[in-house]
Predict the structure.
Amino acid sequence: MNGAKLARTGAALTVVLAVIGGMLAAVIGCTRRQLPGRMTNVAGLVAPLKFHMTDQGGAPVSATSFRGDAVLLYFGYTHCTDECPTTLATLADALQRLGPQANLVRVLFVTVDPRRDTEPVLRRYVSDFGPQFVGLRGTSAQLTRMIKRYRVTYTYQKPYPRGDYQVGHSSAVFIFGPDGRARLLAQNGAPAGIIAADLRHLLPARYAAGHEHGDPPAGI
Amino acid sequence: MRRVTVPSPAHRGFAVRILSYLLPWQFSPLACVVFTLTLVLYLRGLAVLRRDGAPVGPWRPLVFFLGLALNYVVMQTYFDYVAQHMFWVHRLQHLILHHVGPALLVLSAPVSVLRAGLPRPVWRALRARWVRRPIGLLWRLLQHELLAPVLFVGLIYFWLIPPVHFLAMLSQRLYLLMNWSMLVDGIFFWWMILAPIEAQGAAAVPYGRRVIVLTAVALPQIVLGAYIALCSRPLYSIYEVCGLAWHITPMLDQQLGGLLTWIPGAMMSAVGVLVILHHVLQADRRALAETRAKAADASAGAPA
């Protein structure tokens, strides 16, 4: 083996080690984003909150309507028999634990079944869970833009003979800070206590009792 | 039982439907530029070679276009959507981006055509010493028989480590990085393995060592694929978290994905060995013909 060849092998070996080291570091980085309680830190990975839709009252809303609030974004449909009610109930429980700070949180429930989830249906459904719950309904283009942005999807199942059908959908709850940037992702089964604790971190501490919803938190 | 995928254009008219399946699910400017530029360069190269009286036969362009089209389809069409929401389709996507697509591109021996397609000033700029030397060094390093297989297998493993995979499927940027890293590494790797020695210049790895490299990369793919396929608990929860494109259970999805990593991935090594054998036979035949010609010359020139 001559000198040049030896140098080349040496360089290759060094790069091999560097590649393995780099990959290991990246793996450790990714692992550290998995937080306890089925939560994941998605800061910088998931797109900031942005959408245009209609709320349960028929008013057009966009992400800017919710600036200043921590936002929990969830995709589902009102005829859902298991996942949606369970998840929304968990979120309602988490808000309850937050106490007055819950006024600074909005849960956006985006229907993936706008055909059946008309505004009155949506209104009745979200009001069951609490005043912080907002039902969102979009045109097919608006909804498609949103699922592309958050890289989620939904599928309609074959209808039963009576005509009702189930919809397969994502189970993630995307959590955004008051600045609209994505912070956390809660997987199915994340306990209310942990969600509440994480939300408390996102919210400015001085906004405790008595805060009027709509004021932008100063100093952020 | 079939579930209709809602974002699917299945309910529209035929022409619209075909078009919507071909249009990018998520338009990527990078993919648009790279694929268009490659196609234009190649077509121009074909035209230049034909004009110069050295036309390329139909097979090489056909193989090249097939490779390019496969890579484009899995990266930019509706296929990309399904690959984001089905693990086994994602594995198929990577099988094409990392194995089949690049191998086809390399087998079509595209360098002479692409070079002919380069405008002369660009080609001259690329030949400049200060451009050629660093590129040459980097190229030779990436074509090293130790580094190339480590990168090849390393990337497969890296993107399939569950926490890494979770974030890669969640983040648009990481997702693009993942797919492009597979395609670029695939081209480097299969060039090192499949291109004939004459075409490779100083970085060429002898055929015998290439067979060893192919065996060495097949084994870890078999181990990983088998592990994923036979694992009894779900490894990649992201597909359930973000919603499945089709109605199959996550476990079946994982098993199919494992099989795709295990069998066709490793089979590509066998295909590679066959191509190398072909190169060896060709070289042998040429050497034999040369010896014969020399012998004939010698006997003809020998004094009676």
